[in-house]
Each structure stands twice: as C-alpha cells, then as structure tokens.
C-alpha cells in the first residue's frame, strides 16, 4: 500500500447525504463517481449527481446496500478502481474490505485487519491498554460462563454495564444498578447481541454516571505518519444515538485534552492505522479522567465540525491516502480556528416518542448562509427502509457562544414541509441552559425534559399571521368584478366584503380575515380584532403592519393533503400552522375522513413485525395491538378506542402503506 496507486473512478457503497459528500470530494480531485442504489432510491439526488449509476437490488438493505456481491459486480461493470464505504452499512465490515482488496480494488479506508481488530470491543480495549490508553475497570476475559461473569460482576460492584463485544449504538447493552439483577441483564445482553451481531460475547465495565462522550479525529497514511485533527464532543444523545456534535469539546482542562489527543495517536500508530478514524472516549468530569470506549474505523457522521475548525477536507484526504500519497503536513502544521456545531436533521416527531416520519418533501427551504450536507431536496420521497437522518446543518463561529447563536439563526431560517422533522426539538436542545452551560452529559435528556419534550404551540400573533398569509396566498392577484360582490368566495362570511374563515386543528371557531385592499381585519376565535395595513406576501416573506406595529416574517404556504400548511418564523423558531378553509371542512365531512376512530391505521409506511391481538379479543384504549418497523425503529401502535377486535387487516411480514388499516375494532362506547 506504500506505493502510488492509480484509480480514476470511485464506487460509493452508500446512499444519501454521505454519498453526495463523497461525490463532491471526487469532483474536487477530478475523479469520476459511481453511485449504487436500491430500487427505492432510483430518483434520489445522489443517483442523479453521480458520473455513473447502477441499481443493485430491492429496497431492503440486505438485498442492496449490504449485498457485497452486487456491489463488487457493479464496480467491475463500471470499471471502478476503488470503493468508498462512507459510514454505516458495510463501512466497518472487515470481510467487505478484504473482498474489495482481493478483487484488485482499492478500499478507501483502513486495512481489513485493523477493522477486524477494532471491531471487537474486547480486542480494541486490549490494544488500547497495550498502547497506554486508559480503559474503564471491568472484565473482558474469554471465559464467558455464567459463573465467571457473575463472579466478576460481584467484584466490580454496581453500577456497571454489560456490553456486547461486537455491538454498537446501544444494542446488546444493559445497565445494572442492583446486584440481584446481574444474571438477567447478562442473559438479555447476550440474547440481543446474538440476534443483532451474530456474536453473544459480552464484557463488563464500570459505569460512569454523568459522563460525556469525547472523541479524537485521527488521520494516518500508508507511510507510517499518524496525527490528530483535534477533538469533538458528542454528548447530546438519545438511546446512544448522537443528536448534536461540536468541535472542540468544551470545558476540558488543557492537559487532559492533550493527553486524550496523544493517546489517540499512540493507539492509531500501534495498530498501523491509515485513513480517517476516530478514537472515542468516556470523559468523567467529576474524576477529571477519560477512558477508551472504542475506535470507529471509518469516516464519522460528525466529521464536518472537524473540517470547519481545521480547514482540512477529510474525504479528500481519505482519497489521497488511498492513492498512496503521504500526508503533506505535520502535527505542528494543524491549527484550530474557532468553534463548530453540527445539528442532525431527521425525519421524526420528537413530541411523539421520536416516531419516524415518511412521505414526500413538498418544501425544502434550508438557510443559505451555512453549510448543509443533505441527502434530499424538494420532491424527495422519505421512505421507511433507511435511517431517518436527512441532512446535517453545520455552523462555525469565533467561539462557542457565537456558534450557538449561528445555529439558532440557521434553524430559525429552515422550513420543511410534507414530512415532519426534528428542527424545533434540536433548537430546544441547543438553547437549553444545560447545553449552554456545558452541564449536559450522555444521558441528560431525561433531566433536560423530565416530562418529555412537547412541540411549541403557536401564539395568537403567529396564528393570526398564518391565517393572513394563507388569505393573501389564496386571494386573486388581479381585480375582478366578483370582488365587488362582497363574499365572493365559498369561504366568505356573509356581510363582510372579501372575508374568509380559516380553522386550525385545535380550535372549533375559525380565524376570520375580512376587508379589501390595503386594509384588512383579522378576527381571532375569541373575538379579538386586529387591524392590518399594507399586508404583502412576496417571495416567501410576509410583511405589513398589525395594530400599527410593523411585522416581517419568513412564510411558506403550501398544500398538504386535506389542509394547508403555513410555515412561519415565530418567536421560538420556525413553526408550522395547519389551516383548513371552509371548503376543506365541507370536503372532509363529505368524504367521512373525520371518522374512523374505530380503526387502527399505520401512521407511516413500514413492515408489520408483530400482531398482539386476535379477532374477538377485548382490548383497552392505548393497549398495543401491532408492532411496526420503520426506519430501523420499532413502533408500538395502541388501540384508538376500547372494544372488541372485529377484523385484523394485516399479517406479520406485510409491508403496509401510511394510513393503511391494520385492525378494526367494535367500540365499547358507540355513542
């Protein structure tokens, strides 16, 4: 690998935003890119933007993005000389890396031996210890008998973690706080590890409460040069999945930070690491100590924050290193400028237990002043087959306070329609006092939102402006004789020229907009009247004066199903206000869409995993009837009413569409 290697075409064995990110780096170096895609991704942006594209199978990852044979055949058919795995899927699969090399192709990443060694958490910790990197006290022995594990658990004391050796993302992990529960936790972790990774091996380690997740980016070439590119903090997590990342990690003593970075370089050098990699630590502020967690032998999702503070293009350097180039700079040449924050944009509803959201993106209006690594655009279809992350928003400031302010401003300037996203939740996280004060840790969400997070409710001014925006959107652009007749539209209220009524989902009474020309009146459901002058809606901007006070808000109006959506910048961020006209309400009633409370329907497309009831069985309201899998997550779907199961409309293994009936009930209360 130390010699110069030549390739001009790179196959990207991935999808979405990371595929587009790698394509940009290829174009920068004058390389052609090959996109491989599943049938579900045929119309995705990363496919259209590639130099060449090959369909490698159905939507299911096992039949496409995890199909090694299909990927290698696509490389052969297109004449690709190298393969970049991105992150996820096959990126840390040692067998895949070995087969790429056996096929005479260049694997853009570390050696298959390094991937295999670091892929076992037990072996990785042994390598870390040998390199003088601190590890948490625990048991990582080969004796996996119940007696030995229970004896080691007793010696370790609570609290401790049972963790899968081959695991990741929190799977195969159990926290033990009661010594009597150790046996059950070990059995459960083994079973989950076996099912998820095919390997039941577990290990035990001390649990550090209120710890933070800090990682160091390393870069090595095939000539023995290894250096670090600083550190990142990824402590804001949900179920061990990162939400917000930043560089550098804040509030760490300088000496400890240097020790973390030096230890990461020692470990990478000891295993002969090449390409980009990440050494992850658990940082315990109370003890002022850090401990090795694992090494990710791939590009990280959060790599852009490191790029922002160093000015280095990590994907470009992955490609250069894979061609056999030596790093053209030394450790002392790496400088760090300011602070960067990355916010993950995901198709999910945090207010409803992070329920996955699917559908067609009808509005995609990101901020134009910051970096956005995105896998979608307006018109993209978000399905249930893959991870829910759609994009990453990256900001850079002179310091952490400025980076937070820029992140909030960018989130406020981001509007998405057609598919629910987590922007409001991320804004609540990044403005939370615990995050601002660096008092957060890996399990702090429960403290930050002890009753769970609820979406902000639009205030009266925002709802009034939303109705006004919709009114202006629906108003004719030219004067017509019909306007002089007063209530010329079906939505009009008799006696009020040009008046119309708009209903929000949570109100029985409408918001009324009346008047003509430059003077309008907005009447709220409680009867409050607001005078509006010089109102205009142009280029997604609503402006004018309300009760004499000027207003100017970003506003997007679009149709979504049986209602309108108005995306409006409110005091607490971008807010979506759903509204119906009188026509919409009449059509809803005529179609019977308001009914159906006796039927459990799929909230999104997905695969039926389990049906927990049988015909004729009596169920309570809220009782789980069906378990649905969507975007790698299991969703427990509750009974909408109490009653008897009248009909089951699906079977385990079925793929169902959003809105499809799953279980029909005969309600107890038929009034």
UniProtKB/TrEMBL annotation:
SUPFAM superfamilies: Glutathione synthetase ATP-binding domain-like, PreATP-grasp domain, Rudiment single hybrid motif, Single hybrid motif
Domain Biotin carboxylation stretches: 6-450
Residue intervals of the Lipoyl-binding domain: 591-666
Domain ATP-grasp: 125-323
Keywords: ATP-binding, Biotin, Ligase, Nucleotide-binding
Keyword ATP-binding appears in the UniProt entry: yes
Pfam families: Biotin_carb_C, Biotin_carb_N, Biotin_lipoyl, CPSase_L_D2
Keyword set includes Nucleotide-binding: yes
Annotated protein name in UniProt: Acetyl/propionyl-CoA carboxylase subunit alpha
Species assigned in the record: Enterovirga aerilata
